[in-house]
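User: Reviewer 2 asked us to show a designed sequence for the structure in our supplementary figure. I'm pasting the structure tokens here. Could you produce the per-position amino acids so we can include them in the response letter?
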């Protein structure tokens, strides 16, 4: 495989600065790059390169279902296109175009989720969150633009590699003029009692209504349940594990954890708000449109 392609896959595998939405779009862009740079002499060689790269991308971040879903959806469209009597150059052009369309669709879905989530934020709210989510940052930005007055408390979300996702999020919120405070993960129990709602991002929505997200999401969810505070998870439907992949997966990436459905008040995707026990309704919608 081309060294530049391997480097792109490696960047996705080792990226600790971005969330699942961004990385899934990077994965699709990488497949578009295959078509743009391939030296294949026929369609089969191109498809082999495409498939090899797709498999590496799927394996790169197993805790981020959006990567697998978006890569597989694009792969299916590519193979359907290849069955038509078209030239090699036409197939390359189609792959590039479909990759760009997939990215655009993802951005639209992310914006829709952010707009829906922004409506959760009310005047005088103290919103608590953890880990890093560009979708949450955008939702809070939209709530701020709408004129609502609120503040945010962020768990430090300290990781073994030295990252402080709460601090990264705080810098972005501060640049937007949103009042925020970063607390040590060990102080969650105290601060959660002062919060009005918990909003976290999503790396994967499991088919049983549970989610996967960065630590310490489980602690936040547990404390929120005990305190009777809403715990709401937001993310695009592309993060939904419609086929039970996580039921078969034994290990999560370091820094990720499962939050059981019974701890989650609601899940918001671009399809709207749904309770965890009714996530199958979103599955049905996706089965019709994908």
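Assistant: Here is a per-position design you can include in the supplement:
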């Amino acid at each position: 495989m081309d060294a530049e392609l391997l480097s792109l896959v490696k960047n996705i595998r080792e990226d600790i600065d971005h969330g699942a939405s961004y990385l899934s779009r990077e994965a699709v862009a990488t497949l578009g790059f295959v078509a743009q740079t391939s030296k294949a002499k026929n369609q089969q060689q191109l498809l082999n390169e495409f498939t090899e790269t797709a498999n590496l991308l799927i394996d790169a971040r197993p805790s981020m279902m959006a990567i697998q879903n978006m890569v597989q959806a694009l792969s299916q469209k590519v193979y359907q296109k290849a069955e038509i009597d078209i030239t090699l150059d036409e197939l390359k052009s189609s792959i590039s175009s479909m990759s760009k369309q997939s990215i655009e669709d993802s951005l639209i879905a992310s914006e829709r989720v952010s707009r829906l989530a922004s409506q959760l934020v009310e005047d005088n709210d103290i919103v608590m969150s953890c880990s890093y989510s560009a979708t949450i940052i955008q939702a809070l930005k939209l709530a701020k633009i709408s004129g609502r007055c609120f503040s945010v408390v962020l768990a430090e979300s300290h990781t073994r590699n030295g990252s402080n996702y709460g601090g990264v999020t705080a810098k972005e919120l501060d640049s937007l003029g949103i009042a925020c405070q970063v607390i040590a993960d060990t102080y969650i129990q105290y601060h959660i009692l002062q919060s009005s709602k918990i909003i976290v991002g999503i790396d994967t929505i499991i088919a049983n209504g549970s989610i996967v997200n960065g630590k310490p999401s489980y602690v936040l969810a547990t404390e929120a349940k005990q305190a009777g505070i809403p715990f709401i998870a937001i993310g695009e439907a592309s993060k939904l594990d419609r086929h039970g992949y996580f039921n078969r997966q034994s290990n999560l990436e370091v820094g990720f954890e499962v939050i059981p459905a019974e701890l989650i008040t609601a899940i918001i995707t671009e399809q709207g708000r749904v309770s965890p026990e009714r996530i199958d309704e979103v599955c049905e919608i996706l089965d019709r449109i994908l």
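For the response letter, you might also mention the following. Strands lie at 126-129, 151-155, 179-183, 197-200, 204-205, 211-214, 231-234, 256-259, 266-269, 272-274. The chain has a mean pLDDT of 91.
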